[in-house]
Amino acid sequence: MENYEIREAVLFGMGNPLLDIAADVDEEFLKKYDLKPNNAILAEDKHKDIFEEMRKRFEVSYVAGGATQNSIRVAQWLMRVPNSTTYMGCIGDDDYGHILEQSARKDGVNVVYQKTTEVGTGKCAVAITNLNRSLCAFLGAAEKFHESHLDVKEHWALVEKANYFYIAGFFYTVCVPAILRVAKHACDNNKLFSTNLAAPFVCEYFKEQLMQVMPYVDIVFGNETEAATIGRTVLGIESGDLQAIAKALVSLPKINTSRGRTAIITQGADPIIVATESGVQLFPIIPIAPEKVIDTNGAGDSFVGGFLSQLVQGRDLKECIKYANYAAHEVIQRNGCTFPEKPDADFIAALP
Length: 352
Known about the structure:
Blueprint: E1 11-14, E2 18-24, H1 27-32, E3 39-42, H2 50-57, E4 61-65, H3 67-79, E5 85-88, E6 90-92, H4 95-106, E7 110-111, E8 114-116, E9 122-129, E10 132-138, H5 153-161, E11 164-168, H6 176-188, E12 192-196, H7 200-205, H8 207-213, E13 219-223, H9 224-235, H10 242-251, E14 262-267, E15 270-276, E16 279-283, H11 299-311, H12 317-331, H13 345-350
Parallel strand pairs: 1-5, 1-11, 2-9, 3-10, 5-7, 6-8, 11-12, 12-13, 13-14
Antiparallel strand pairs: 2-4, 9-10, 14-15, 15-16
Helix pairs in contact: 3-11, 9-10, 11-12
C-alpha cells in the first residue's frame, strides 16, 4: 500500500455531539434507571432525573463526547496535522455547546457545528460500575441536525475535500438523508466510507436505516454484542457466531465493487475479528493488567479513531489495527475518551 502525506480535511465525520457526564455509580442506580452494563440507550421520560441525580450523588466529570466525535478526535491526535479532520453535528447555542466546541478545536479538529436555540446541547450519562459502562444519551440539539447544513457552499466543500468518511450508527436515529448524501458522494468518487453498528438498539430498532446505507459502506466496525444483535435481526444468524456474522456483513450487497467490504468486530479482551472477501483474520489486543483499566467508555470509539488515523495514510491492515489497539489501550487507562498530549512513539514502535 502507498503512504500518503496527511493533509487538511482528509477525514470527515458527522454525528451526535454530546457532553459526557460520567461517574462511578452503584448497582442500585443502574436498577433504578433500568440500565444494563456495557449497553447504550436513548433517554426516555423515566431518565429525566438521571443527570441531576448523578451530579448530586456521585463525583462527576465532564468530557466532550459523542461516538463519531470521539473517533475523529482520536484520529486527529494521532495524525498530528491540525485540521486534518472535519466534524459536523448539531449543538445548542449554550454553555455546554461552547465547552464542546472549545474542547474539539483544542484537539485540532475543524468542527463545523450546526447550532440551534430550540433545545440545549445533547448530554450522555456514563454510568460506570467496575470495568463496565452504561450509556444513556439525551440527544437534545444533536437530534436537530438537518441536511440543509450540507447545502452551505463552504460546508459541502469540506465533504468534497475529504477522501475518507466515518459516521457511527447513532446518527442513523437522526438524519439518514444527510448520511446517504455523504455516502453516495464517497461511492460516486471512489472514496472510502465507513460506519459503526454503534449499539444493540441501533441494530434492532434502526436496522432499516442501517441497511439503507450499508450498500455504500466499505468498512463496518462493531463489538461482539452489536454483531450478535445484527446477526439475529438482519442476517438470520441466531447462534451468535461472530466470524460467521463478520463474513455475512462482508457479503451484503455493495454498490462500489472496485473494492470489497471489510468487517471489524472487537470482543473486549478477546482477539479482534477482521473479515474481508479473502477470509477471516484474528488480531490480539494489547494485554493490560486489570488494575490499570480506569474507564472502558470510549474504547470502541478510540479503536476506530486509531484505525482511521493510519488508513488515511495508506497503511496496511496490520498497521491500522496496531494503532487502533494502541489508541484503545491508552484511552481505557483514563477517564472518558481522553488521551495524553502526544502519542507514545516508543511504545508503538515496540508493538509487534
